[in-house]
Write a structure and sequence with these properties.
Largest sheet: 5 strands, antiparallel
Bound molecules: adenosine-5'-triphosphate
Order of helices and strands: HEHEHEHEHHHHEEEHHEEEHHEHEEHH
Helix content: 25-40%
Oligomer: single chain
Number of strands: 13
Shape: globular
CATH class of the largest domain: Alpha Beta
Number of domains: 3
Strand order of the largest sheet: 11-10-9-12-13
Structural class: alpha+beta
Distance between the termini: 14 Å
Strand content: 15-25%
Length: 362
Amino acid sequence: MVISREEILEVFHGYSRDEITVATLGSHTALHILKGAKLEGFSTVVITTRERDVPYKRFNVADRYIYVERFSEISNEEVQERLREMNAIVVPHGSFIAYCGLERLEEDFQVPIFGNRRILRWESQRDLERKLLRESGLRVPRRYESPEEIDAPVIVKFPGARGGRGYFICSSKEEFWRKIGILKEKGLISQEDLENAHIEEYVVGTNFCLHYFYSPLKDRVELMGIDRRYESNIDGLVRIPARDQLELEVEPSYVITGNIPVVIRESLLPQVFEMGDKLVEKSRELVPPGMIGPFCLQTLCNENLELIVFEMSARIDGGTNSFMNGSPYSFLYHGEPLSMGQRIAREIRLALEMDMIEKVIS
Ligand code: ATP
């Protein structure tokens, strides 16, 4: 059973409210989560291993360290106990969820987290994610039930957190089976991967990853920043002239290695806000109390200027690292360089001041 909000509020009631610590795992977006918390007056703690503490030490964003042997220990009872002793609110990011394990985070992690714990499952399961996006009325790529149906360019994705390894593009069932054969031969995919392959329309367009923040306290959807992805080896592959690409026979992969900040054409902003608003509204109905804090829509903008969503995060996304010192959009709100990390900490601070912490933690 998913830990109830009441159980978490009980933990929180045992906290010393003047000594709240913002905590996260040392990976993903920890730098600006911790820096932002410090700027808002909180103390900070990072959970890390000896091998991975370098960035937090060099940039000096953590007041305290909880060392573990392996990241997967973050959900151990001992770590949880230390976090509670520190009056910690944990900001769950992609790596935190991956190492904690979704089920443990839902059922065993008895430490308050910022955001809606129940919605995390909706971003990690493709079917639930698609249901939420579709029912929100957002455009998503067409999905193909079987390779037999392929009649246009598609991208073939495999399950699990593999960072786009083995993904490929094809335009017919013959090409599908030929490429599957090559990938299997090279040991890049298994029979099980093949059975769970996800085939969707390949959208030719420009990439915009939209980083929103929903404030339950202000009942407002804010656009905090936009990035686009820098992926290996595909972004290197496209620098090779077509003639040489054919000679090389390199298999493309989509492993994320970095993020590039972008701004979107201003006339697309009404669409951007409409999409964020719709998702917030529908998630309230499907996964109450709905979206809390940061979320992200990974989109492609086609030549008809339609934004098509191929992925969603219901928590802070890695692309927010592209605006640690604020983005052109976050600047517009208060005329200050605001990161997503600081925006989260500000919401926590406001919730404490307004005595409404139950609106932002679970
Ligand atoms: P992660 O969860 O780490 O972001 P993933 O393994 O779930 O990655 P996606 O994000 O779905 O993979 O896709 C990886 C990359 O493939 C995208 O960043 C984008 O470049 C490309 N891509 C994905 N879906 C489509 C699509 N429908 N049309 C065109 N390109 C796509």
